[in-house]
Amino acid sequence: MSSVAVLTQESFNEHRSGLVAEQAGDEEAPAYKDAFPPLPEKAASPEGTQEPVNAWTSKIRPLKSSVITQVFHVPLEERKYKDINQFGEGDQAKVCVDIMHKTGAHLELSMAKDQGLSIMVSGKLDAVMKARKEIVSRLQTQASATVAIPKEHHRFVIGKNGEKLQELELKTATKIQIPRPDDPSNHIKISGTKEGLEKAKHEILLISAEQDKRAVERVNIDKVFHPFITGAYNKLVADMMQETGARINVPPPSVNKTEIVITGEKEQVALAVAMIKKIYEGKANSYTVSSVVAPSWLHRFIIGKKGQNLAKITQQMPKVHIEFTEGEDKITLEGPTKDMQMVQSQMEAIVTDLVSRMDYLEISVDPRFHRHLIGKGGANINRIKDLHKVSVRIPPDNEKSHLIRIEGDPQGVQEASKELLELASRMENERTKDLIIEQRFHRAIIGQKGEKIKDVRDKFPEVIINFPDPAAKSDIVQLRGPRNEVEKCSKFMAKMVADMVENGFFLSVPIFKQFHKNIIGKGGANIKKIREETNTRIDLPAENSNSEMIVITGKKENCEAARIRILSIQKELNVRTFLISLSLTKPCFHSVSIPSKLHNSLIGSKGRFVRSIMEECGGVHIHFPTEGSGIDTVTIRGPAEEVEKAKKQLLSLAQDKQTKSHTAELKAKPEYHKFLIGKGGGNIRKVRDSTGARIIFPALDDEDQELITVVGTEEAVREAQKELEELIKSLDNVVEDVMNVDPKHHRYFVARRGQVLRDIADEYGGVMVSFPRSGANSDKVTLKGAKDCVEAAKKRMLEIIEDLDAQVTMECVIPQKFHRSIMGPKGSRIQGITRDHNVQIKFPERVDGPGKGGPAVQENGEANGEMVEEPAAPVDPTAPKKCDVIVLSGRKERCEAAVEALKALVPVTTEVEVPFELHRYIIGQKGSGIRKMMDEFEVNIQVPAPELQSDIISITGLANHLDRAKEGLLERVKELTAEQEDRSLRSFKLTITVDPKYHPKIIGRKGAIITNIRTEHDVNIQFPDKNDDNQDQITITGYEHKATAARDAIQAIVDELEEMISEDITLDARVHARIIGARGKGIRKIMDEFKVDLRFPQPGAADPNQVFVTGRPELVDEAIDHLLNLEEEYMADVNENESKMTYMKPTGDRGASSMDEGGRERGSSKGFVVREAPWQTGSEKAPDMSSSEDFPSFGAPVAATNKASPWGPKRF
Questions:
Q1: Contact at 8 Å (CB) between 667 and 707?
Q2: What DSSP character marks residue 814?
Q3: Which of 542, 670, 939, 973 could link 957 by a cystine bridge, Cβ 3.0 to 4.6 Å?
Q4: What is d(CA 148, CA 187) in angstroms, rounded to the nearest whole number?
Q5: 3-class secondary-structure state, position 118
Q6: What is the pLDDT of residues 535-563, one digit of tens each?
Q7: What does the pLDDT read at residue 214?
């Protein structure tokens, strides 16, 4: 039968109050020790040792490094890869790299003398164990063994959830297979390396022995004595087990344990223990374990590079084992007593020596500067190491450590630390700044071959300037270096950009294409002179371009001056061309009105029609308006006569097009076109004049090179077509003719792979000219081609022969030392003379001076001079040397002009007197200044050596360059003199005495005030360093009047500060936070508004309500009034909030009893009651609920007191 409990209103009220007297009386209060169990007085440590009661006051053990190092040895017979020639290569190396990637451990391989493999593994314990397992399975051959233990012990080997078995496999680097529970076998199979098998067997037998019900005895014997107990091949321990019947488990050498476990019957175990101790005591007397004190940082110096130092000792005393423990200041030695004494004395001598001459130092450097200290490829740190003979350890990035350790010679350590700290300090002072410079200016700033930016970098060598990649389309140029240098460089580059913007004005000047080379002048002399004198950049179109515009860039007034100069050259020139000889008159501009609908037909396909008019009329320029603009005006520009001629042709062509336009096309081989046109357009002009038709030949970029277009009236086109067809037919009529050419001229025609013959063929319709073979001694030359072309080619060849017959040979004597200068870079000057004067110039072979060649050999005698057939001819001292004679060949008048041109290229020398102290400034940094002048003026400037103390500077170059170079050098001297005077004026120093307490106010927030003074007055203001004796001295450097003005500005600030007063007022601490505001916003507003300084008390101040107001008297009063008003306003809010809190948290003394919801009075709450509390059983007082000492808040400090606590004695 089920029952239901009904909850009434009365029972609910009783339940909620929990204060019903009957129920309260039924429950017994808990005991104090049950409610508040005491902390354990003592706790057993894992090793079984007892720790003191107050664990916090005990000495904290030093934490050991989490990185461990273990060495594994793989004997030769167990190595999987035995190819000795491939050590460090091949599959073995790949396996090691793979293991390091998988486990995160670091592996180092070395080969022992017995060809065994030693592997040192470093890393976290877990990583090392995993790496070890991988090494064993992949680098060592595997073996297997079985161990038999009772079936009931198998579960202990497996452990909970297989954890013990996994740990065992990882620890021994083996694979352990335990038979299934339903398998009756008790054999456990182990596979792995020989060493791993031993470890695993040992561990399994140990587990079995511990679980065995028989007696177990553990004997601690130092590891070094284990081999004496086991004997050779474990024979001794096997004999003992057979004799006693006990099982003796000795840990293998690879397991770092000293405990030997003996299991079996008690009598058997006791007998085995006695035998083991007997062996130990016998050997202990002849075997010693000792240690040598050596600081851990010296261990690697004791070991030496690749263990060389240690190898010397171990080779002499191979029985002594030397062990270094990481982080410990000692070296452990084990071995025979006799050998031990010698090794210990040697080790102590090494340690003493190293301690006396070695030292170490640790410096703190921010990790973000570490890679800069190391340098690219370790360049910086390696230089410091080599220079000071020290070892420097910089922690890796992942350690985030500030400490850099320097070890080595004491003096070297100090010097290296000083240099490293200076480098770090310099880097801390570094600043990176981004300049916004439009990308179009980048190339101009960099200059040709980086010359301009090199000058900037030479001026600011400590600043690194990085330009963005052109493909990035970025305007940001990054500057990095010392703060002051970066600012100076930034201002300098900004000025450069401003100058470029100012100089960015450009003009386009139309100059006839055939005049461009005259504007440039010989060797660029004309254009260079205009550029230098007007300080502009002048760009000419490419030679193969059709553009006639010359672009001038620079300041507006300079561009106008350059434009006038160029136009004046054009006006004065008489240009000779191969096609037309023109007398240049004032350029004429003319406009012609032609209906826009005819423009395209007048221009022709790809501009063929208009281009033919421009070429025919001496290169006039015809400009049509943009297509679709509806403008009828066509502009013609050029010489007046040619403009008029082009105008007539255009109008005629337009009229023809408009009224009776007719076009015909015919084809002719491209090689005939030149002959059809004729020299200077003579042939085609005859056809045009006789018929009135216009004939247009294909341009180079036209697809059909054979197509000739005839335009005009129907009749004119028909007649022109007929004449052209007759000409073409005659050209197709191939004839062969013979002419006589003297064999001495044959070489001229066939030289340079027949260049002259190729030119004749191109000009005269593809005529083939055949000369007789070399050695045939014939003067017959055959010409084959169209009849008219053959005749014209024959006539041209006769003209060439006449020129050759008129040629003379002339000698020009110029000293050999000037020949290279005359030739110019890559022979450019001599090529110009050859081209301009149409002569051949041959320079003699270079002859070294006496002593540089071999001994002189007479032409008709023996080398030693003993037999001479003919007496040597007397040498004429006035006769020129062969090496000085330049031979010219050509027409006499041309050769004479070329000789004059050659002599004009002979350099001359002049001397300029320049004060010796200015020489180094003229040379410039790394010779940049003098190189720039030499390149600019095309001269060689020689400055005397410093030891000569001479004022004479020699200038060597062409006569027309020397005057400009001399003027430029003297101008540079004038600039340097002015700079020296300016430097001395700027060096004026002035000192002002200011109380150090005012220095922060003068400097201002983030240096704003002092920077403003420095910038405004262009001075340097230096405040005293912390260690200076005169802390009140401020030094101002600059021009005298500016330094004085800066001093007055500082003095004005000081005077204003001295007039200020400081008053303290009392403001309730509860309103301080509201006055200060979020992130100090409120207080900053008050300080800015009233121009005063406010200081609020620090936490823990004696008077937390005291606030200091500093400023001018009237402003301080206003600020105080404002603060007091704020306090009054904020305090009203504070009082209101506190009164609300009293209602939200009623106190416990509002009456001993209260009424429940049913109107009944309920008893007072007893709170939480305990029995047998310390204040009830002893003399202690009950804890005070309102006391912050008995019930402290979390994080609040508790004042020390001697009075007893109700909670018992304090343990902290």
A1: yes
A2: -
A3: 939
A4: 4
A5: strand
A6: 888 888 877 666 778 888 888 888 888 88
A7: 63
Residue 324 tokens, joined: 């270094």
- Using only C-alpha atoms, the chain has a radius of gyration, in whole angstroms, of 54
Does residue 890 come out as left (phi exceeding 0), alpha (psi in the -120 to 50 range) or beta? left
Rounded to the nearest 5°, which phi and psi values hold at 68?
-120, 160
Of 673, 679, 680, which is closest to residue 695 (Cα–Cα)? 673
Q: What angle do CA 615, 616, 620 make, to 5 degrees?
A: 55
Amino acid, single-letter form, for residue 915 = P
- Distance separating alpha carbons of residues 249 and 206, to the nearest angstrom: 7
Select from 616, 607, 709, 725 the least CA-distant residue to 661.
Answer: 709
In angstroms, the CA 816 to CA 675 distance is: 47
- The Cα 887–Cα 899 span in angstroms is 10
Written as six digits, the tokens of 85 are: 């020639």
> Sign of torsion, CA 777 780 781 782?
negative
HSE value, Cβ hemisphere, 13 Å, CA-based, for 764: 25
Per-residue model confidence as pLDDT tens digits over 397-425: 777 788 888 888 888 888 888 888 888 87
Q: Which amino acid is at 236?
A: L
Q: Are 240 and 277 in contact (CB under 8 A)?
A: no
DSSP run (H or E) holding 465 = strand 464-466
* Strand residues in 256-297 grouped as ranges (E): 259-264, 287-293
> 1119: which 2 tokens?
């600020």
Two tokens, residue 281: 């005591």
Write out pLDDT tens, residues 614-658: 777 766 777 777 666 667 778 887 777 788 888 887 787 777 666
Contact 695, 724 (CB under 8 A): yes
Amino acid identity, position 1018 = D
Residue 714 has which token pair? Answer: 């129907």
Task: Please say whether the beta carbons of 587 and 528 come within 8 A.
Answer: no
Specify whether the CB–CB gap between 592 and 616 falls below 8 A: no
Our CA angle for 590, 594, 595, nearest 5°, is 150
Count of CA atoms in the C-beta half-sphere (13 A) of 1109: 25
